[in-house]
Specification:
Oligomer: homotetramer
Order of helices and strands of chain A: HHEHEHHEHHH
Number of helices of chain A: 8
Largest sheet of chain A: 3 strands, antiparallel
Shape of chain A: elongated
Chain lengths: 186, 186, 186, 186
Amino acid sequence: MGGDGAVVRGARICYQSAARDPGADERLIGRLMHSTPRHNTVFEHAVFRWGVKCPIFVARQWMRHRIASYNEKSLRYCAADREYYVPEGVAADDPYVAHMEASFDLYEQLLAAGWKRERARGVLGAAVYTEFIWTVNAWSLMNWLEKRLDPHAQPEHRQYADAALAIYQQVMPITAGAFVSSVLGR
Amino acid sequence: MGGDGAVVRGARICYQSAARDPGADERLIGRLMHSTPRHNTVFEHAVFRWGVKCPIFVARQWMRHRIASYNEKSLRYCAADREYYVPEGVAADDPYVAHMEASFDLYEQLLAAGWKRERARGVLGAAVYTEFIWTVNAWSLMNWLEKRLDPHAQPEHRQYADAALAIYQQVMPITAGAFVSSVLGR
Amino acid sequence: MGGDGAVVRGARICYQSAARDPGADERLIGRLMHSTPRHNTVFEHAVFRWGVKCPIFVARQWMRHRIASYNEKSLRYCAADREYYVPEGVAADDPYVAHMEASFDLYEQLLAAGWKRERARGVLGAAVYTEFIWTVNAWSLMNWLEKRLDPHAQPEHRQYADAALAIYQQVMPITAGAFVSSVLGR
Amino acid sequence: MGGDGAVVRGARICYQSAARDPGADERLIGRLMHSTPRHNTVFEHAVFRWGVKCPIFVARQWMRHRIASYNEKSLRYCAADREYYVPEGVAADDPYVAHMEASFDLYEQLLAAGWKRERARGVLGAAVYTEFIWTVNAWSLMNWLEKRLDPHAQPEHRQYADAALAIYQQVMPITAGAFVSSVLGR
């Protein structure tokens, strides 16, 4: 919702100004992004909604970002699907894979024996996939990107940030461009 | 952004369910709104952006609602326009009007004498109009509506809530309808 | 931090009032809690800091409460301890226990084989214990209590809410008392 | 609440580490403050409660900082006191002072004539003093300090930030010291 135009409108109501030439909006966004301390509020009027499927250990980090809205597949109300993350290079006959399969076997036995789903899920590892909807404004998105694109971030999470950055650059080219140069320093 | 469909998608990802008949989504929203405690997160995926013009005393109450994004016309960067709220029934020759006019006269004199705008605005009363952009999700909007439609709310603020409710009912008829019956009890 | 006195001060600055008799503060808190819509801001000035140790599946629900601060034991930086939740009535020779032990055995083998901790944790189930520090104001605490004391909440989470309510009643007897009667309806 | 110790505990639970020598905690805080992107969550466990009295135009900027709790003297429930900001160098016989006095004269006439306080306040200028209680964690406090200590901030607001910084340095000397050197670059 909104895109670069929402950022510009948010800024121009403050200054009651209008663009005088074609590049004015782009220069305005560049200044807002580059200033220290940054002007966060103008970036909050553009809002994204994403559908995400990722391992639980990635989702746990993700949901620590509190300025956003989440709704996640509930393993209290739904049975888990047999889908889990296998790191690159791990073969199908690896003990890792055997263990993940065994955990789903046990999970299904526990359910068949009358355990509640909310309790049986205790045996499912953090590599199991979950799904959620994530609604987030561009400011909070950039905060997540900055943290998750960092070289110290977990690579499995960074892959999602890389993909999200590419979409961000398509949808809000001016703002994302200013972010990449001013904040990421690329 | 989103409308009733965003609420339904937020809920259905939790339960991994699909609507089986035409009224299923409406019944789902009704249940989510009616339950105690309410399920707030599903209502956060629908987002509104409003342009508001109101007296400063209304804006001050409004901006106490923190789960939202605001950008306001700045009286540091722009000179104030001579526009202020006059309560119904107050005549053009009322001392109230004379005083508001005198405050703008003084404001302009102070600016002409070299005062900074940010300091000269000290003489302008809370009845002066301001403008802002308000981006808010449907959950936070309903919290504002509930508080500002209350009979104890200031009537000048309630008028804005009445107008916003009518727009809410047009844009998200199912969710707004459930809100009006379950929360407002109308 | 603060206790009942912080709530009273928050309210009395609004009204610029003072207690005229010994029961005045208690009646004031009762009215604030009982009114519809509730006055949330006055309850935000009392702040709690808790140390929590719980299964990951409980922590995941807990951290969905966003108006709070969390710092959790990181399985990126620390190796996991062999501690996990065993539901009441599950015997030491139950396949559940055997599986949880097997998951730690594999986890340790993976670490020994050079896997990073952040990746090896994928095999550890949601029943494994985690620890975190939780800083939360009384308003957000009550929202968590209301949701987690609900009969539909997961029993493993409800136990924590029961324990927290007892502490809340000790530390802020007047506010917690009004909460129990007005909101929980007990 | 908490002080430097709360920051240290928040960080040490992540790493499950303990200080090995007297300077270890100070070096830990220094690293957390200096890293890019900064680790905000550990700074959220220390919480401050302030009593503030300031002109309305300062309060309006202040309350735009949303990660905090506010309760303000209400001009719906209390009559305004005749107290307003007079910039340095403005004499007692200045038109500014005369106008502020006239606004209170009119305000009192309107009240005497039966106007509601909530409406009569419309004539009172933004230089009138208000009071509020502000509960804020150290992270959000530092964000406010960074923005309000900036040379471009309004001087009337900067004075409050200067005073708050001095108190911050007394109460949390290690964290505030790291903030001053790493963030403010002083």
